[in-house]
Amino acid sequence: MNATFPFTLCCQLLGVDPKTLRHWLAEASIEPTNPPTDSRLKLLTLEQIYQLAVLYRRPITPPADPSGEAQREATLLQGGELSPPRSEEAAMLQQKLTQLEGRLATVCDHLTHLALLLVQQQQRQIALVEPLLHTMEGNQPSPLDANERGTQAQEAPQAQGWQPLPAELRARTHMLPLVEYGAQGRYVIISPQEGELSLLPDSPAWFDWLASLASFRFVGQQGRLSAY
């Protein structure tokens, strides 16, 4: 039969007060036993004391005035001759702690890898944007260029010369091509759209031009003619 220890002696062995021991017993789901002679007395077995010592990492302290079986068990436990049994709950907790540590290390590795990828992505984006920024800066007009363009815009109408009015353009469209014998002793060909043409009379280009006309006016040495 396993040896049992009174509640007060268990507090001395574990080095805690009764309130703490009751709290530990409730957390570990350990039920003390009651002797048949006195139901108010609570007893713990040596295995239960070992279990509490392992769970809460408490050394076994011999009581101030040990006697009999309790003294022998406490002395053996303090000297290391008896090894406290590891409970299944403590083993499961240790296993879960190991798994959590492994997962934490994996998460840290992933975070480090993601941070490195982010830095590399930012560097690539900067490398792509920098040439565009330089190009945009180079294409920005200087104040001097803007002034020159403004001056050119103001001078453009003058440089282009005189432009005919719309009424004059309509009148030109109704004018007939003219073949006239000029003062220089040669025929002058004038087109309302193209102006003076350099065509030799009786040349192939001359006849091609005449064939393209729907109407024209002729002014010669002997008279004039309008053909429609």
Which terms summarize this structure?
3 domains; rod-shaped; 8 helices; 228 residues; single chain; Multidrug-efflux Transporter Regulator, Chain: A, Domain 2; two-stranded antiparallel sheet; alpha+beta
Could you explain the architecture of this structure?
The protein is α+β, with helices and mostly antiparallel strands and 228 residues long. It folds into three domains: 4-85, Multidrug-efflux Transporter Regulator, Chain: A, Domain 2 (Orthogonal Bundle), CATH 1.10.1660; 86-138; 166-227, no CATH class. The chain has helices at residues 7-14, 18-27, 46-55, 68-79, 88-139, 143-160, 166-174, 204-211; strands at 4-6, 43-45, 178-181, 187-191, 195-197, 216-219, 224-227. The protein has a five-stranded mixed sheet with strand order 5-4-3-6-7, with no helix packed on it. The protein has a two-stranded antiparallel sheet with strand order 1-2. The longest helix has 52 residues, at 88-139.
List the helices and strands and how they pair.
Blueprint: E1 4-6, H1 7-14, H2 18-27, E2 43-45, H3 46-55, H4 68-79, H5 88-139, H6 143-160, H7 166-174, E3 178-181, E4 187-191, E5 195-197, H8 204-211, E6 216-219, E7 224-227
Parallel strand pairs: 3-6
Antiparallel strand pairs: 1-2, 3-4, 4-5, 6-7
- The outline comes out as rod-shaped
Strand coverage percent: 5-15%
What is the tally of beta strands? 7
State the oligomer: single chain
Structural class: alpha+beta
What is the CATH third-level topology name of the largest domain?
Multidrug-efflux Transporter Regulator, Chain: A, Domain 2
Span from first to last CA? Answer: 144 Å
Task: Flag low-confidence runs.
Answer: 76-85
Largest beta sheet: strand ordering: 5-4-3-6-7
Q: Order of SSEs, N→C?
A: EHHEHHHHHEEEHEE
Give the radius of gyration. Answer: 58 Å
Treating each run of at least 4 consecutive H or I residues as one helix, how many helices? 8
Total count of domains: 3
Major sheet summary line: 5 strands, mixed
CATH architecture of the largest domain: Orthogonal Bundle
CATH class of the largest domain: Mainly Alpha
Mean pLDDT: 75
